């Protein structure tokens, strides 16, 4: 394609800093973001570093230094700032051209593959009994015709129910009539960012795109699987683009190109991860990512600033400016009460978050809920898994599952769409995905009708991807106008969160004029960035209610999250408000769901509406994020607090009017005159500038009112005392919260080992629990499992057992249904099955700490 040719030319001009193998044992590396006029050679000379080249990430350079414990660049920048402040140093200094500096520390195991954890199954319960596996005659006949018409003779095609389901007809991705139109993924490349890709598999070889592939773990051009558990990426790749031939099955886009980018099998720096996200992004169209921070219901982790910048550069510059497409697995932590809004990769507006639905059309126990879920597609559960290609010359695998298997399937379907409409932007693709998705028939999924008449569920997003419907819709899709956005000023709240159902409710009124000025026509994504202080993070939840009354549960309470912290500048995202005008009252309700000794304070928040522009010509590109984007809290003096009107379930709150008169003085009684959020063109150029602008004049339209705290059922006379006392308690809690926060920060800073937590547990556990038994290789025999051990899921410690679906574990069935899997491999699964179902919570817990949840 024309675009690609241009791009190849421009890429060739870039330095190859990304390809350099770095010796972290003997050197330090820094990534510096340099001002355009800062000459890297001069920066290097001034700081005593060696310039190693520019990254693909624009204006970011790699520098090498001899190994020291200190951060040389940071020290120099601080010294320069001091001198400037004290006016000692009036002269220009090239150090001022260093806009961002980050010493690179390789870490390992902080990103996990999204293979599902084991399900708790009662003893004696059999999956097989729950799902009759009888094919329906007409469907079998139709399948045979399809195979004949499309010349498909792949031996496990008939097992690939996700492509054509003969047992539960209709429960598949509805792709065969797309293929019969000759739409099979030509000219589109999907890059699998994972643990490698077996380019020598006969099923992948034909579609392998070497020029889009790289190994960021071993720093070489070939992302070949090396470790015994490097199978995940290959299996994902097979789902996307396994060739139509005589090996295993086919990919959903069986003529698409497939690239491998290896990052999950060793040490990785932020710079490497950032580079991986935009590697050859004029040639790689879609990046499929089946991994993320651990899904244990305790983590809350967002991509580093370099990775955020890379993803933004990807959507702005990738694919000839149409935008790289990032597809992320929603996560497998549902059984741990995890939620994909606590994962900064899945809740990014730049990623399409894909959850799972099983072959019976049900929600599988592992697939995470969240308001950022856009769609779901088929994966393991209900007695089966995804059948795909495996590592090896002609190996197949019938146990692929988790949201890990859903994301690549969706990515492959998006490749079909792009193959007929390469002009679609990254946002067009999101529109098409949600508009063409089919509702999943599950009455318990909390479906809500959105403002544009779509059905949305936090479990299934807008429903399951229907390939045929999506491709048909794409054929005459009118491209949407460029993106625009509107940001509210920071809203200071600084109020204790009452425990119980009711919560603390605040709101912000968005006016037509604000959005007009921001050139925003209609909403797509909504994000809320907020600060909450708390002594137990898992107690808190947050709802966002739009002017149209659509509710996003942007944060949910998490039983396992014991973190003595709240939310620190954390950004939650929702796609449930897609298509709304955005005008009207947006409400945030923060709840502390547990009545216990843990308390918290809702500090501040701001709302961002992202969507389609009114005037395409006025649209601009969002500036790259900066670490201090949230630094202007204190410049804003907008205060909004309201108590929601009592709901039926809320405790009675007598005498609300009285409270107005007797509030402690630190709580404003009068309706405050909030600043007018006044996003102007400059705002769009500078995110931080916007808030300053905002603290200007007042406007009635954005007024927000204080009604106030519940009276706690006390008498009028007692209330001032109670609130006084409460004030003290709250002050104490805030103080405690801050102290704990600082302590924790220290601990994290001083404990570089924390980066290795998962990797170490991984080793400890597999060694400790399978004592005396060595992990075995692909071809070797399998170890016997110890009777009754809790951690049977780790048996072998090397491969399939770690990853088999619940089907493989619990269903009693023949070792091999596939002529192409090695009997030995299936035998391994049988050990894992073992007929036992004595799992308990500790088993689940233990797996949560594994790299592979
Ligand atoms: C797409 O690929 C086909 C062959 O697979 C080729 O003939 C065609 O020229 C390509 N189209 C574009 C627009 O590159
Ligand atoms: C699947 O595709 C067919 C066209 O082949 C279409 O008629 C149908 O509505 C689609 N959806 C389902 C659920 O079958
Ligand atoms: C939020 O971000 C700003 C800017 O980076 C920082 O100054 C502030 O301390 C952060 N707040 C918290 C609670 O982390």
UniProtKB/TrEMBL annotation:
- Signal peptide annotation: 1-17
Q: Where is the active site?
A: 194, 232, 404
According to UniProt, the name of this protein is Peptidase S8/S53 domain-containing protein
Record-annotated P/Homo B domain positions: 480-615
Q: Which residues form a coiled coil?
A: none
Q: Where is this region: Disordered?
A: 642-699, 760-853
GO biological processes:
peptide pheromone maturation; protein processing
Name the family the entry cites: Belongs to the peptidase S8 family. Furin subfamily.
- Entry's Gene Ontology cellular component terms: Golgi membrane; trans-Golgi network
Task: Cite the entry's keywords alphabetically.
Answer: Calcium, Glycoprotein, Hydrolase, Membrane, Protease, Serine protease, Signal, Transmembrane, Transmembrane helix, Zymogen
Q: Where are the transmembrane segments?
A: 721-743
Q: Where in the cell is it found?
A: Membrane
- Which source organism does the UniProt entry give? Emericellopsis atlantica
- Which Gene3D superfamilies does the protein's record reference? Galactose-binding domain-like (2.60.120.260), Peptidase S8/S53 domain (3.40.50.200)
């Amino acid at each position: 394609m024309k675009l690609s040719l241009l791009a190849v030319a421009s890429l060739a001009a870039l330095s190859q800093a990304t390809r350099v193998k770095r010796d972290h044992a003997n050197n330090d590396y820094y990534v510096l973001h340099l001002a355009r006029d800062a000459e890297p050679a001069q920066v290097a000379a001034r700081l005593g570093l060696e310039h190693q080249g520019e990254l693909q990430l624009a204006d970011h350079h790699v520098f090498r230094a001899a190994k020291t414990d200190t951060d040389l660049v940071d020290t120099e920048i601080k010294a320069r700032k001091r001198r400037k402040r004290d006016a000692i140093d009036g002269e220009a200094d090239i150090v001022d051209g260093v806009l961002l500096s980050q010493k690179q520390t390789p870490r390992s195991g902080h990103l996990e593959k999204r293979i599902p954890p084991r399900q708790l199954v009662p003893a004696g319960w059999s999956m097989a009994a729950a799902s009759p596996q009888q094919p329906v005659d007409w469907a079998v006949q139709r399948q045979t015709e399809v195979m004949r018409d499309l010349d498909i003779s792949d031996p496990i095609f008939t097992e690939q129910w996700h492509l054509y389901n003969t047992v539960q007809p209709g429960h598949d991705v509805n792709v065969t009539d797309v293929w019969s139109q000759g739409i099979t993924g030509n000219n589109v490349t999907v890059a699998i960012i994972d643990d490698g890709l077996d380019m020598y598999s006969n099923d992948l070889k034909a579609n392998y795109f070497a020029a889009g592939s790289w190994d960021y773990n071993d720093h070489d051009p070939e992302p070949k699987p090396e470790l015994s558990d490097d199978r995940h990426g290959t299996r994902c790749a097979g789902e996307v683009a396994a060739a139509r031939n005589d090996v295993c099955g086919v990919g959903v886009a069986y003529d698409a190109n497939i690239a491998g980018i290896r990052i999950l099998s060793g040490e990785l720096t932020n710079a490497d991860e950032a580079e991986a996200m935009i590697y050859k992004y004029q040639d790689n169209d879609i990046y499929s990512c089946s991994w993320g921070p651990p899904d244990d219901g305790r983590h809350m982790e967002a991509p580093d600033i370099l990775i955020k910048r890379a993803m933004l550069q990807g959507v702005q510059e990738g694919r000839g400016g149409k935008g790289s497409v990032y597809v992320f697995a929603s996560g497998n932590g549902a059984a741990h009460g995890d939620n994909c809004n606590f994962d900064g990769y899945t809740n990014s507006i730049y990623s399409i978050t894909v959850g799972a639905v099983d072959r019976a059309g049900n929600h599988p126990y592992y697939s995470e809920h969240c308001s950022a879920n856009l769609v779901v597609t088929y994966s393991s559960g209900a007695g089966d898994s995804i059948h795909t290609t495996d590592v090896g010359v002609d190996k197949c695998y019938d146990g692929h599952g988790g949201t890990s298997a859903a994301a690549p399937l969706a990515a492959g379907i998006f490749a079909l769409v792009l193959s007929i409409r390469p002009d679609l932007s990254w946002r067009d693709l999101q529109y098409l995905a949600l508009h063409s998705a089919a509702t999943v028939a599950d009455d318990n999924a909390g479906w809500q009708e959105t403002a544009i008449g779509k059905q949305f569920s936090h479990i299934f997003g807008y429903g399951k991807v229907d390939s045929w419907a999506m491709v048909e819709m794409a054929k005459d899709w009118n491209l949407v106008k460029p993106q625009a956005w509107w940001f509210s000023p920071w809203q200071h709240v600084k109020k204790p969160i009452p425990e119980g159902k009711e919560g603390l409710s605040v709101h912000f009124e968005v006016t037509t004029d604000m959005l007009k000025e921001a050139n925003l026509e209609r909403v797509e994504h909504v994000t809320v960035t907020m600060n909450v202080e708390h002594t137990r993070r898992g107690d808190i939840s947050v709802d966002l209610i739009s002017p149209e009354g659509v509710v996003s549960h942007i944060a949910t309470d998490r039983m396992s999250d014991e973190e003595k912290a709240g939310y620190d500048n954390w950004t939650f995202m929702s796609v449930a408000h897609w298509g709304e005008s955005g005008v009207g009252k947006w409400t945030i309700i923060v709840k502390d769901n547990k009545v216990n000794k843990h308390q918290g304070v809702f500090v501040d928040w701001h709302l961002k509406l992202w969507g389609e522009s009114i005037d395409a010509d006025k649209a601009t590109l969002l500036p790259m994020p900066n670490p201090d984007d949230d630094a202007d809290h204190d410049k804003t003096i907008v205060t909004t607090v309201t108590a929601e009107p009592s709901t039926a379930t809320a405790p009675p709150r007598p005498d609300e009017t009285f409270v107005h008169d007797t509030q402690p003085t630190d709580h404003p009684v009068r309706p405050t005159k909030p600043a007018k959020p006044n996003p102007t063109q400059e705002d769009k150029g500078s995110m931080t500038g916007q808030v300053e602008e905002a603290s200007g004049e007042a406007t009635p339209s954005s007024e927000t009112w204080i009604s106030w705290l519940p009276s706690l059922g006390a008498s009028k006379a007692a209330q001032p005392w109670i609130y006084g006392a409460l004030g003290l308690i709250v002050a104490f809690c805030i103080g405690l919260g801050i102290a704990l926060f600082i302590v924790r920060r220290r601990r994290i800073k001083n404990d570089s080992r924390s980066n290795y937590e998962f990797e170490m547990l991984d080793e400890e556990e597999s060694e400790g629990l399978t004592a005396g038994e060595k992990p075995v290789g692909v071809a070797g025999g399998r170890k016997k499992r110890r009777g009754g051990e809790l951690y049977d899921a780790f048996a072998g410690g090397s491969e399939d057992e770690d990853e088999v679906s619940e089907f493989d574990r619990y269903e009693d069935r023949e070792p091999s249904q596939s002529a192409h899997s090695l009997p030995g491999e299936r035998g391994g699964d049988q050990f894992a099955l073992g007929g036992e179902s004595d799992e308990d919570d500790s088993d689940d817990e233990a797996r949560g700490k594994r790299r592979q949840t």
